[in-house]
Amino acid sequence: MLSRLWLATALCALSVSGLAHADYPDRPITMIVPFPPGGPTDAIARHVGQALGKELNTSIVIDNRGGAGGVLATNLAANAKPDGYTVFFATTGTMTINPALYKSSLKIDPLKAFTPVGTVASAANVLVVSKEAPYNSLQDLIDAIRANPNVLTFASSGNGGIIHLTGEQFKNMGRFQISHIPYKGSAPAMTDLMSQRVTMMFDVISGSIPLIQGGKLKALAVTSDKRLPILPDVPTMAEAGMPGFETTSWFGLVAPQGTPESALSKLHDVLQHILASPGFKSQLQALGVEPMPGSRKDFDEQIQKDTSKWADLVRKSGATVD
């Protein structure tokens, strides 16, 4: 009799569990975004949130938590309840660069604190110089660097960011004698670049597109492995004379470790459906990024590979934050 009662109870529990999976989500999902409203990361996150909400028939609440290069948001998201109702809009910086930079303020190890949901988009940087600069190709720039050791400079929006580290990759790969000039944000860096107070910058595409299209900057190369639809006439670094130079950053969704597998699977499947939409692809490309579909396993491997890559560049650059 007891065995029959146990069996009936177990079947009931399985039935309820199945219904719970089918009904997920049954309330709004919070997406923590590690940067303030209005920036490029926020713009991509809002497109994703809107599309996810529509497909899941629920609201995606965007919770912008800017500060400390994304560290505040990362700590918050990692400690959220792992119930499928909080996801983190992760970036290359927050997941794979910050652990090497923020030794004390980053309280968690992203590799252990999160589980991947899926990649969303990839973003290349673009090597730009002032429209007044005498360089019209990457080779022109390389020739000038070699002819004037320790004279030319590259700008960044701050120590340890992907703009800085892409410049360090360029410097190390070419064995160039060129100095890094860090700024407090992209705007002052761009001002000095346009006035030729600094020589060059590996800017994020979304930041430079208006200035390139407006004729204020010259784009010499992009750091992706293929030319970009938004800059079809600009060669890749490999095409322009530095074979093997390829650096892209990514955006993706992760969830706190311990989030139910059923929720992770559903979020991933819906995300893949969204990324396959031509309309959504066009929205991302207008922001200077490319859709990046893929499995959760692929994303996990990408995070691990990039953690090692960027930690090595941070070490070589000597960049520190805390």
TrEMBL record:
Record's keyword annotation contains Signal: yes
Record flagged with keyword Signal: yes
Signal peptide: 1-22
Classification via SUPFAM superfamilies: Periplasmic binding protein-like II
Keywords assigned: Signal
Coiled-coil ranges from the UniProt annotation: none
Similarity comment text for this entry: Belongs to the UPF0065 (bug) family.
Name of the protein in question: LacI family transcriptional regulator
Lineage start: Bacteria, Pseudomonadati, Pseudomonadota, Betaproteobacteria, Burkholderiales
